[in-house]
Inverse folding.
């Protein structure tokens, strides 16, 4: 798997340099490209394989409790949110009270059993699949990168904002080098000099990186990333002056959401944001006083609550769509160390001012019958019901205003999947 | 084959070490090519005394918070390792230690999560000679065995306490075989993906049942518990294990049923089998090629076969493979100069070696490494860091440029003194700096930009001017795309 990942990146270097012949790095495109009401897409990737059965609990399924004697959430603790279309009662993890409030307000959609055929149990292959939106194919640009490639050139690189240090596969594009901004305060250009001397130095650094050595694609790739940095520095710095209308938690996730809200509110030009929250690979110590999963849920709840409240107060909620998902769900039954192992289908969340909230799709029955159609792998893992690309398709068609059949290479539109 | 030019000499030290300082270059030039290569490879003949230089004048500093405790404080462990990379007289040993650290990719945070930060550091980095119960940290094991026979190295890693925590071997029992180590042994440590089937993973898990660890203390509150590998015979699955690939020289694919007392041999058999698998030899050869020769120019398959043979025909000797590699034509081919993306650690240490360290504190490297994407003892996952272009993003490039700013700010005064004799003209200053810092060749436009920077004001050669321009130039070169390549 490591090998294929590296192959992929290598390919993206050569793919990228093709796009470099276009003048893709102009600074003042925000206004030019911002015509009409801007819509913001924030992707929250829950890295490690979120245990969907602990996020959304089928608390009346006896097999949920018999197969998870240690890690099941007691029925009395779940935050009930009603029943799905198959009349299965469902409840959120007890540490998600703010998500329930958003659900009750009709602004949270939960897509159950999202996944794909022959789901990979590997973190790397799974993440690649959700990134390229092409199961089995681990090379080429990502689904959001392909969307970016449809924008008329030249494209402002800050059209997308990656809050990671690395560029996730989903954002790898042929035409732009998406900026990686792990921290706004660190995203600056220092100098051993000051004043005019430092300013000159920065100007020279920009010029050096602007050269496109056609016969040196690897150097061109590095320079493109430097160019992106130089072209986005000043606007990213504006976000440090942002005063939120809600108090964000001091967690990494909370601070990242504050940064995203700041970037939206100060109109730096970004429309697509990538936020990652790791730690979901809960093979052990999933529950208990110091359990990993309750903490993950509490941090997630607090960060999203602040983000939602902030955007609402700023009048930006209607222009923002937050989508969350993971590379796979976890096994139906628990393992020997108070945890759960890699499984198949998971869930997707969509939240925002224009979201049509509610439960989409149906819950799995966890009955151990090997023929149980809602499970796979001898009844061990949840089988998918909604192809994750159907959710991507809805986002691309309705929210981003592009053609999902072109970007996804096929028609994945699903009737009834009208969460936006 | 040995180097014949100064460029080749510098290339050798960028790859087999972390670059060379001006004084080291002078020394190596005087010694001669053959002796330099021999000394690099046969580093056991050179005293391993670099740690004694910590705190001594003439070397980079470390940040001391109360007391310097590299065996029990992870930040200090990181400082010590960076100090070693910077000042060791056995550069290849540190370079290989870094290679294997990525290969076996064990993260401190999981070990510390299990046993606390102090013991977590001990298990990652303690020097036995300095530990009250002679605990050996994983990185010390790697340093000791980085050139050894790979099967012995793997067995030692399989029994390494940090590894037993990292890949959950400590929980591997008969009733619940743990797949983590067995899978990664085949997929990441040896043969590579696609050369085994899922059933091999289950069999490998059973092979290592009972390969657990023991923690012993001298009583409650013992500040230095002893951790060691422990073969728990009662937890070993004694039934036979069948594999899809040969385990024994006669082609046998089944590890026989054994008594629990003899069950430890199962793991030894499997490790020897995968270590001597022809695909392991080739995969190691490719990885070492990427680390020492090129990530840009693919290897010739004949060359890979040659490296694999050096390993397979010499009792799985890593020394044979590395020696063959460093003496090879591809290694010394100028087309392979600057054809790798430097790892952040390589980038930072090379910059310090080339620019200067008097008054510089290696703690500043520790801080910058997080932003550059390579915090030592904290690889992102079991597959290690994403190498090559994977290091590069706008944020990571800014982090590199900003580390260069920290370093050049720190070295302003030293640089002035050294640059002054070479600062008669802007061109002379530029030539001095380009000789000092070994970056990939600049094309004419980049050269002209730098020339324009130095000559932006009328040249007087005043101390103020030289100080500013020397520091600014060094920063521009170290922060340029060309300096990423090594």
């Amino acid at each position: 798997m490591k090998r294929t990942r590296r192959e992929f990146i290598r390919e993206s270097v050569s793919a990228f340099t093709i796009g470099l012949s276009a003048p893709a790095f102009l600074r003042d495109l925000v206004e030019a490209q911002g015509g009409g009401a801007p819509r913001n897409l924030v992707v929250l990737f829950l890295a490690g394989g979120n245990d969907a059965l602990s996020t959304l609990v089928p608390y009346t399924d006896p097999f949920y409790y018999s197969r998870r004697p240690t890690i099941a959430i007691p029925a009395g603790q779940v935050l009930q949110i009603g029943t799905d279309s198959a009349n299965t009662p469902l409840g959120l993890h007890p540490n998600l009270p703010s998500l329930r409030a958003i659900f009750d307000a009709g602004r949270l959609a939960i897509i159950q059993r999202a996944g794909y055929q022959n789901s990979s149990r590997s973190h790397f292959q799974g993440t690649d699949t959700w990134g390229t939106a092409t199961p089995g194919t681990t090379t080429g640009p990502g689904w959001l990168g392909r969307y970016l490639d449809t924008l008329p050139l030249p494209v402002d690189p800050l059209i997308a904002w990656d809050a990671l240090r690395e560029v996730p596969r989903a954002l790898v594009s042929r035409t732009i080098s998406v900026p990686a901004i792990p921290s706004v305060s660190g995203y600056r250009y220092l100098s051993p000099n000051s004043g005019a001397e430092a300013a000159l130095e920065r100007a020279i650094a920009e010029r050096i990186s602007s050269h496109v050595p056609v016969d040196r694609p690897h150097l061109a790739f590095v320079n493109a990333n430097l160019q992106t940095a130089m072209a986005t520095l000043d606007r990213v710095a504006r976000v440090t002056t942002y005063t939120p209308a809600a108090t964000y938690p001091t967690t990494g996730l909370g601070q990242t959401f504050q940064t995203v809200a700041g970037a939206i509110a100060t109109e730096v030009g970004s429309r697509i944001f990538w936020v990652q929250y790791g730690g979901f690979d809960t093979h052990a110590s999933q529950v208990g006083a110091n359990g990993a999963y309750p903490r993950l849920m509490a941090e997630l709840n607090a960060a999203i609550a602040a983000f939602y409240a902030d955007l609402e107060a700023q009048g930006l909620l209607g222009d923002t769509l937050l989508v969350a998902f993971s590379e796979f769900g976890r096994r139906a039954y628990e393992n020997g160390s108070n945890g759960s192992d890699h499984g198949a289908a998971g869930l997707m969340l969509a939240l925002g001012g224009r979201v049509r909230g509610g439960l989409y799709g149906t819950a799995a029955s966890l009955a151990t019958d090997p023929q149980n159609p809602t499970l796979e792998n001898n009844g061990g893992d949840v089988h998918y019901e909604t192809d994750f690309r159907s959710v991507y398709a809805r986002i691309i068609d309705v929210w981003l205003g592009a053609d999902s059949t072109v970007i996804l290479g096929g028609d994945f539109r699903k009737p009834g999947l009208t969460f936006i | 084959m040995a180097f014949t030019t100064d460029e080749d000499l510098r290339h050798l030290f960028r790859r087999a070490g972390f670059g060379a300082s001006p004084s080291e270059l002078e020394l190596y030039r005087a010694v001669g090519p053959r002796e330099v290569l021999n000394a690099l490879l046969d580093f056991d003949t050179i005293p391993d005394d670099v740690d004694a230089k910590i705190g001594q004048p003439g070397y980079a500093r470390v940040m001391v918070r109360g007391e310097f405790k590299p065996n029990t404080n992870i930040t200090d462990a990181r400082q010590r390792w960076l100090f070693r990379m910077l000042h060791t007289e056995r550069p290849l040993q540190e370079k290989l230690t870094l290679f294997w650290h990525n290969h076996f990719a064990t993260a401190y945070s999981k070990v510390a999560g299990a046993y606390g930060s102090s013991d977590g550091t001990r298990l990652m980095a303690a020097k036995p000679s300095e530990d009250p119960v002679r605990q050996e940290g994983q990185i010390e094991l790697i340093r000791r065995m980085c050139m050894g026979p790979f099967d012995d190295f793997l067995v030692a890693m399989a029994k390494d306490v940090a590894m037993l925590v990292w890949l959950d071997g400590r929980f591997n029992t008969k009733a619940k075989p743990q797949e983590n180590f067995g899978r990664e042994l085949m997929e990441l440590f040896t043969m590579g993906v696609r050369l085994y089937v899922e059933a091999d993973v289950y069999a490998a898990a059973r092979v290592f049942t009972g390969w657990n660890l023991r923690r012993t203390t001298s009583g409650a509150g013992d500040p230095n518990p002893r951790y060691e590998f422990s073969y728990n015979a009662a937890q070993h699955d004694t039934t036979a294990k069948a594999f899809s690939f040969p385990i024994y020289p006669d082609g046998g694919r089944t590890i026989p049923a054994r008594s629990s007392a003899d069950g430890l041999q199962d793991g030894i058999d499997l490790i020897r089998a995968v270590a001597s698998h022809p695909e392991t030899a080739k995969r190691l050869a490719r990885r070492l090629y990427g680390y020492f020769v090129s990530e840009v120019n693919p290897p010739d398959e004949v060359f890979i076969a040659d490296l694999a043979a050096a390993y397979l025909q010499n009792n799985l000797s890593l020394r044979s493979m590395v020696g063959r590699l460093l003496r090879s034509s591809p290694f010394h081919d100028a087309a392979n100069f600057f054809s790798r993306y430097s790892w952040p650690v390589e980038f930072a240490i090379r910059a310090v070696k080339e620019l200067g360290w008097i008054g510089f504190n290696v703690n500043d490297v520790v801080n910058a490494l997080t932003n550059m994407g390579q915090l030592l003892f904290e690889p992102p996952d079991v597959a290690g860091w994403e190498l090559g272009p994977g290091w590069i993003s706008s944020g990571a490039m800014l982090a590199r440029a900003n580390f260069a700013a920290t370093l050049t700010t720190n070295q302003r005064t030293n640089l002035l003194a050294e640059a002054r004799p070479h600062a008669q003209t802007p061109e002379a200053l530029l030539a001095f700096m380009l000789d000092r810092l070994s970056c990939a060749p600049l094309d004419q436009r980049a050269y002209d930009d730098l020339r324009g920077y130095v000559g932006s004001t009328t040249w007087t050669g005043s101390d103020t001017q030289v100080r500013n321009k020397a520091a600014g130039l060094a920063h521009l070169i170290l922060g340029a795309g060309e300096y990423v390549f090594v």
